[in-house]
């Protein structure tokens, strides 16, 4: 029997961590299962104006790209790995459950332990100003047309099932992300360049839209 199938290859969404300076990829985190929904909110950045004595010439002006936030729920499950314990890649799941997958996501928002120790040593040595750690550039990938630099703003984990050693084997991770634009990063930052690609991709997709007709709206045109 032929094993050829017409089923399309299922792409996965995920997160890429990159060094903002060198561009070196530090880690790729693919979501085990694609979320059923991805919620996006765009907050308009408009010039301040008001009808009561405000500058009316500012009413239609945009001061920058909208502030875009993204929310999704990701499911992580070790069941498939636990069903075939003889396979070597599944040994980690047997010993730790899904803790490695959770830790890969959690450590995105942690400073490294080395940086914390360095700050403690500098503080003990009399340094008055302790430097904040430069985090990797976090990039949310949701198909080739949606690749955006983001900052994780909300993170919650609901661990749902455990093995006999209390390792979590199923969990739901809720992620909230804010897209970082050129106002946040600047045009010369690697993330700023990624945002401009993301922005231009939207413009190209918008140009593909055929548009409508006045008749569809039930009018003959816009009154003068």
TrEMBL record:
Tell me which domain of life the UniProt entry assigns to the organism this sequence originates from. Bacteria
Question: Which InterPro entries did the record assign?
Answer: CIS_tube_prot_N
Task: Give start and end of each Contractile injection system tube protein N-terminal domain.
Answer: 26-176
Name of the protein this chain belongs to: Signal peptide protein
User: Which organism is the protein's source?
Assistant: Rhodopirellula maiorica SM1
High-level lineage: Bacteria, Pseudomonadati, Planctomycetota, Planctomycetia, Pirellulales
